[in-house]
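Researcher: Going back to the complex we discussed earlier. I've cleaned up the inputs and rechecked each line, so this should be the final set. Can you rerun the prediction on the complete assembly and write out the structure?
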Amino acid sequence: MKLRACFVFLLISILLVVSACGGSSGANETSSTSNAPEQSAVEPKDLVVAFGAEPLTLDPHDADDAVSNQANNILYDKLVTFDRNNQIVPELATEWKISDDGLKMTFKLREGVTFQDGTPFNAEAVKINFERIINPDHKLSRHSLYAEFIDKIVVDSEYQVTFQFKKPFGPAISAFAHGAGGIISPKAIQENQEIAKNPAGTGPYKLKSWTPGTEIVFEPNENYWGEKPQFKSITFKPVPENSSRTIMLENGEADIIVPLPTQDVERIKQSDEFVVDIAPIYRTFHLWINNKKPLFQDVRVRQALNYAVDKETIVEKILLGQGRVADAAIGSTVYGYSPVGSYPYDPEKAKQLLAEAGVKPGTKIKLWTPDGRYMMDSKITEFIQANLTDVGFDVEFQKWEWGAYSAMMDDPNKDFDLMVFSWGTSTGDADWGLRPVYTTDGSNNYGKYSNPEVDELIAKGLASSDLVERTKIYNQAMSIIKEDAPMVFLVENTQTVGISKKVEGTYTLGNGYVILRSAVKK
Amino acid sequence: MVQYFIKRMLQMVPTIFGVLVIVFILVHSVPGDPARMVAGPEASLEEVELVRERLGLNNPLYVQFVDYLLGLLQGDLGTSLRSGRPVAEEILTRFPNTLLLTFISVIILTVVGLFAGIFSATKPNSLRDNTTMMFALFGVSMPNFWFGLMLILAFSYYLPLFPSGGNAGLEHFVLPGLALGLSSSAILARLTRSSILEVIHQDFVRTARAKGLKEKIVIYKHTLKNALIPIITIIGLEFGSLLGGAVLTETVFSINGIGRFLIQSIQFRDYPAVQGCILFIAIIFVLVNIVVDLCYALVDPRVRYE
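Model: Rerun complete. Updated structure for the full complex:
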């Protein structure tokens, strides 16, 4: 009797396995539809994008991870946005102007736009949105981005709105172009809807479904005010494993993968089915020096460290060309950037400077890196270890798990010597690339760098609203920073995206977003 | 039997409480600050402090623990720091994927492992025994995630039969199921072989053969049945541990299961999610163990629970 039960169990088991395998033919069909040549050229297609992670929230005012911002970018419009050259252009606002004292910014708004839930877009909607962000009670994570400078929002007419500032604030327009400035339906805000899961914007796509951890699907917003959405659906899939992401691109399960892992770039490049888009982004990757330590208080030592590191080789051999030797404290796509030059690789000069500063060969320094957080982080640091050993340091190298590493940055007792760290100028404006990191009371000045002249210049740049003037001021500040060498300037990062040749019209912005709005699929 | 079952269920309470205390202490003593992780590396110290307050991380540890226990008693596993969703919801959306993967793997493991073991044991030290055991050795020594990648390469890349990852349909579970099932079936095959060989020389088997029973009946009815206890133990253990999530396999195949969720939560220092996952896994493990013990009584009448 029991033996028979055993057999029945086995039989069911086998049946299940067979049915599982049978199911595969279905899979084949679905995956081959995305592969197969299209039935007609006009019919809209489905687009599948594989990311390394999944969005955490669809509330643009509360999102600070890249994939959430990426999703919010197709759900919401902002007043202004970045074009493919990272220049600021109109979106929901048609024009804007700033008052002479720099204390007021007025936007004329686009007419005839409606939100995905049917609510009309107008000046009142803009007011409700920014009042939501700047109200500290809402505890939104992008609160300080706007609360820092917006004092009051005034509705001038149905389609005109004026922001009154607390102080002249040069980077204001960049802040409005930031993803956090996405305009949510005022109805959703007032009814206290859970926007993180139920977005309602004016963007070209709206949320269709979201299976956490599996996929998030967007469908076209038929009432979109701009160019009609081109896809039947856009699906984001979280695929954390690097090689799996590449395989998904290669066998047609995904049309776009972000990021394309470094080691696969050459192979994908050689195939004629895919393109590799390597775009510079706002992020810079530097070796941070603890300027407070006696050893590093001598500028010659800090400069020597800069001469000692072979940045060209890091870019070419370790990053395989995905990056650029940093020639300023901020990335080249950042608003207000201008090059100030980089330290050439010159170990002899480094040795000479160290000797002048009285640093004895064999001096111990600690070198810390996270492992796997940034592209090739620990590999680059290992290489730097060799560079620094060459000029006479005794380098103690340590890899950290990211959670512990990021806690270490806040811990005053940890007292690092040298640590690699990446700074993303998230607003895309030079102010945010410099003020937190290089001013004496900068919120993220982990290197404890201080130069009153630099402080003054950065403050001047903040108060000016003329981009030409600001660029000049920042150039001056960055030249001084370069001479002071408060960190070892390494690399301007890139975002590497793998794209099927069937997809055209995507581009990557300085903030790393792959813009899908104008894409088409053949 | 019923009494035994109730007794075991009651014994579960202190076990689970112990797990809770240990996990709570461990999770909170790992270096790393969830507030920093939530705020992001580019947030200022003040912003991190605000987040810490919002998450209640400034309270003393025992207050946090009591709060957590009170929540648990009301069936509340807390809210994930990473996604802001209830941890229970996060776990329950992922568990079906892990469950399906477990079933498929255990079926493959059982079928392949048992038959390979019997196949070997019935002709010990023959060519077929040696070949089978060589494969088994290969299977035991091969890491699951590597085997998974090889399967993807073979059946998804070169021979596009199955999708390389995801968990949208049954077909997505075939390759990961094979990766897990085949590599653990190797252990089962070796165990079945030795277990059968132990029994096969006993007097009752000789008696059965002497009675002139067919070899099939001797093997399947008399020998295998008496060799089943260690086999059930292994299958049960495997079932329990797979239900806790096969971290690497789930990651390689982008399956949104418990294991991958747990790892992501640990990396993010998502305390409530880590605690919730481990609690959930512990309960499942204890339950599976009870079921395994009950199975012993089913296959061996000498085992009684009274």
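Model: Worth noting: Chain A touches chain B through 58 residues (CB under 8 Å).
Researcher: Good, that matches what I expected from the previous run.
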